[in-house]
Please model this.
Amino acid sequence: MPQGAIYSRQELIDQLDIPEIATVIGCGGTGFWTAVFLAMSGVEELVLVDRDIIEISNLNRLLLEERHVGKKKIEVLKEIISSVRKSTRIETHDMRIEKPADCHVLRGKVFCCTDNLKSQQLICAYAKKNDLTYQRIGYDGTVL
Model:
């Protein structure tokens, strides 16, 4: 668990497990906030994976401005996180997980926030095979 005054309240919580490294795949509606909260909780290294750009329709659920429209989600997210947690190391991958070989970038605890079922299945299988903690987060439009 991270040390220091900024984390003094969460250090009071027994068995709180803040990972040193976390990967967030999909940096849209849920992945954006997942990455921000992981960084604010003290994750030391974040791996961000997404290939999409920010669209006007993203502005209703993300802490973004119109000037961000057209920019890469991972680059804007990296900028935002770096402004609030300068010590968080951030690695970005401008890609989608579409085949097993793409999973080589996954490390630490894996937070799957993609809305693509095939990607979700590949990521989950890779995490299990490589003994990585896997957490599916979000809504993909096919499950109610």
Summary: The chain has a mean pLDDT of 91. The two ends are 35 Å apart (CA to CA).
